[in-house]
């Protein structure tokens, strides 16, 4: 099995939950608004209004709308990027939960 085939198979070992939640992406001191499309225990797919590169590290923050629930904040790494019109879809690997 090639490296690519193994990586794809491993991606499917995690349950993905469709979220469509507003997120803040923090990169090099800049905060950028984006949308989390889906989320799993190891990563997430995010739609962003600007370009990032594979290997970039981003802090992702999803604020909770419920007072009793804490939001999510994670350090992530861009593992793939796909450009579409004026937006970019990013595959982010979660490196550390805060």
User: How many domain units?
Assistant: 1
Q: Separation of termini?
A: 35 Å
Helical element count?
A: 1
How many beta-strand segments? Answer: 6
What is the fold-level CATH name, i.e. the topology? Thrombin, subunit H
Q: Strand percentage, roughly?
A: over 45%
Structural class: mainly beta
Rg from Cα: 14 Å
CATH architecture: Beta Barrel
The top level CATH class name: Mainly Beta
- The CATH superfamily label reads predicted glycosyltransferase like domains
Mean pLDDT value? 83
What sequence of helices (H) and strands (E) makes up the elements?
Answer: HEEEEEE
Query: How does the major sheet shape up?
Result: 6 strands, antiparallel, barrel
Strand order of the largest sheet: 1-2-3-6-5-4
- Overall geometry: globular
Low-confidence stretches: none
Measured as a percent range, the helix fraction is under 10%
């Amino acid at each position: 099995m090639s490296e690519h085939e193994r990586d794809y198979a491993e991606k499917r070992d995690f349950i993905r939950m469709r979220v469509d939640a507003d997120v803040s992406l923090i990169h090099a001191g800049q905060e950028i608004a984006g949308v989390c499309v889906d989320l799993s225990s190891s990563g997430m797919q995010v739609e962003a209004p600007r370009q990032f590169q594979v290997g970039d590290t981003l802090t992702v923050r999803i604020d909770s709308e419920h007072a009793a629930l804490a939001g999510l904040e994670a350090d992530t790494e861009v593992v793939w990027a796909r450009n579409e019109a004026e937006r970019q879809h990013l595959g982010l690997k979660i490196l550390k939960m805060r």
